[in-house]
């Protein structure tokens, strides 16, 4: 076949380009599977339902709801935040732990995407290197060959150079296009995840604090009411003064 013949004529650098081509295909499949197929989204009303639990002070229920909402990054972060708040974590600890979880999720989403850009650049450079090597080989052969063989030697060297360039671009173009697509997808996922995590953190921060303040006010009012009732009862049971 013409492709096999062109590959054999391309020289030793063709095997390096082939290796990067195989890596490119593998990473394209892995990234497409991770970012488009396996990536789970939470339900559209996820935050509203979570708010219902938080507003009632049912942080354990909010944690269980988040855990049962699918194996998504946002659900895991929300579950952690509810668990920490249910265990009495303070504001600083809550923010630090949720930031750690967010960074870990972003790292898992973004890993391996950058390799595609590297594969595309290296494949292009290998094609260029093969081109230069082929040109050097052809001119060196022409310098020492007989006049009758010079045309043949020159054509073989140019063929090797052009084949390396072509195969390098065949590998580089899909790698760079895939990198652009997957990086754009990654940026959208990370941006949405960061925004939603911030919203849930604020919900846990302010709604729980509001519940605590309301509980304190109710406790103080209850104590004041009990004190008033005790004072009233004491006045009723006090002995009357004698008048002369």
Polypeptide structure, described:
By secondary structure, this protein is mainly α. It has one domain (2-228). The chain is built from eight helices and no strands. The chain has helices at 2-9, 13-37, 46-55, 59-67, 73-86, 91-110, 113-144, 150-236. α2 runs parallel beside α8, α3 (46-55) packs antiparallel against α4 (59-67) and α6 (91-110) packs antiparallel against α8 (150-236). It is rod-shaped and about 95 Å long.
The outline comes out as rod-shaped
The ordered string of helix (H) and strand (E) elements is HHHHHHHH
Estimated helix fraction: over 70%
Using the CA coordinates, give the radius of gyration: 35 Å
Main pleated-sheet profile: none
The overall number of domains is: 1
The structural class is mainly alpha
The low-confidence runs, each spanning 5 or more residues with pLDDT under 50, are 213-221, 239-244
End-to-end separation: 133 Å
Treating each run of at least 4 consecutive H or I residues as one helix, how many helices? 8
Overall mean pLDDT: 83
**Portion in beta strands:** under 5%
Number of strand elements? 0
List the helices and strands and how they pair.
Blueprint: H1 2-9, H2 13-37, H3 46-55, H4 59-67, H5 73-86, H6 91-110, H7 113-144, H8 150-236
Helix pairs in contact: 2-7, 2-8, 3-4, 3-8, 4-5, 5-6, 5-8, 6-8, 7-8
């Amino acid at each position: 076949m013409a492709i096999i013949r062109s590959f054999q004529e391309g020289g030793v650098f063709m095997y390096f380009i082939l290796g990067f081509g195989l890596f490119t295909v593998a990473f394209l499949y892995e990234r497409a599977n991770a970012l488009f197929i396996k990536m789970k989204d939470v339900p559209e009303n996820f935050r509203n339902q979570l708010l219902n639990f938080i507003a009632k002070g049912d942080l354990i229920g909010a944690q269980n709801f988040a855990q049962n909402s699918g194996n998504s990054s946002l659900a895991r972060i929300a579950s952690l935040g509810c668990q920490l708040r249910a265990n009495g974590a303070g504001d600083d600890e809550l923010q630090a732990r949720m930031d750690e979880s967010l960074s870990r999720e972003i790292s898992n989403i973004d890993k391996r995407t950058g390799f595609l850009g590297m594969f595309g650049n290296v494949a292009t450079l290998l094609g260029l290197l093969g081109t230069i090597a082929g040109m050097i080989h052809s001119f060196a052969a022409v310098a020492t060959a007989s006049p009758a063989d010079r045309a043949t030697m020159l054509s073989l060297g140019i063929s090797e150079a052009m084949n390396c360039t072509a195969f390098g671009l065949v590998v580089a173009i899909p790698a760079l296009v895939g990198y652009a697509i997957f990086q754009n997808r990654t940026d959208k996922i990370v941006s949405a995840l960061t925004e939603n995590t911030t919203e849930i953190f604020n919900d846990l921060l302010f709604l729980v604090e509001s519940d605590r303040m309301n509980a304190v006010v109710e406790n103080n009012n209850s104590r004041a009411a009990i004190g008033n009732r005790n004072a009233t009862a004491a006045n009723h049971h006090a002995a009357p003064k004698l008048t002369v």
